[in-house]
Design a protein that fits this description.
With 207 residues, the chain is mostly helical. It is 76% helix and 4% strand. It is built from 5 helices and 2 strands. A two-stranded antiparallel sheet has the order 1-2. Helix 1 runs antiparallel to helix 2, helix 1 packs parallel to helix 3 and helix 2 runs antiparallel to helix 3. The radius of gyration is 24 Å and the shape is elongated. The two termini are 18 Å apart. The C terminus is likely disordered.
Length: 207
């Protein structure tokens, strides 16, 4: 392994660990938000009554379960990467990349459930007019987050198209953008074999 490869793997480990830490912190913060209305629902529900409170508590409970999974999974994934030597790291990440996407899926699902719980909560505190507003606005917050993620992915794909000659495959990853770094490194290391007329039909390795 040369110095360049070692530097890339070091940066990749730091990027991956930073991504996992940030996701775990977001999940912990979201757990606190969900717990706020789970432990203190509306004392006098003003629209759908106790049925709405049951749905609210159920949604928040499930969302906290999703966030709990995210927090634990990010720790396990970080420990998993720490146990892999540098010369095996790229192959290992290719094999387990789908597992790295699971905590992000769980966080998105948990945020959607929590948002719906807050949509119910505002109506039970302020009246049925706010229930309509809350139940419509709640999923829109998550749709805005998803739309922003799609915009950023399209931006990465545009960057890839502007550098098509580099052989990169940037913008393929949906949830774990660091995975695109693997394809970028592969494109950098790739060698294309071309026939040469000056060496009796042998092949030359071209960068």
């Amino acid at each position: 392994m040369d110095e360049t490869d070692g530097s890339f793997l070091k940066d990749l480990r730091e990027t991956l660990n930073s991504s996992l830490q940030n996701l775990g912190l977001v999940a912990a913060f979201m757990t606190a938000l969900a717990g706020a209305i789970y432990t203190s629902p509306a004392e006098d529900p003003k629209c759908f009554g106790t049925t709405a409170l049951h749905w609210q508590i159920g949604l928040c409970w499930c969302s906290m379960g999703m966030f709990f999974f995210t927090i634990c999974a990010t720790v396990l994934l970080a420990n998993d990467v720490q146990g892999i030597p540098d010369d095996l790291l790229l192959g290992h990440l290719h094999r387990v990349s789908h597992w790295h996407a699971l905590p992000q899926w769980a966080t998105y699902i948990g945020c959607f459930m929590m948002a719906m719980g807050y949509g119910i909560d505002i109506g039970e505190r302020r009246g049925c007019a706010f229930s309509v507003f809350g139940l419509i606005a709640a999923p829109c917050f998550m749709l805005a987050v998803v739309a922003f993620g799609i915009i950023l992915r399209c931006s990465r794909q545009h960057t890839n198209s502007l550098n098509a000659n580099g052989g990169y495959r940037i913008g393929q990853a949906i949830f774990i953008s660091w995975y695109d770094l693997l394809s970028a490194q592969e494109a950098k290391d790739q060698r294309v074999l071309l026939p040469s007329s000056s060496n009796n039909g042998e092949f030359l390795a071209m960068p």
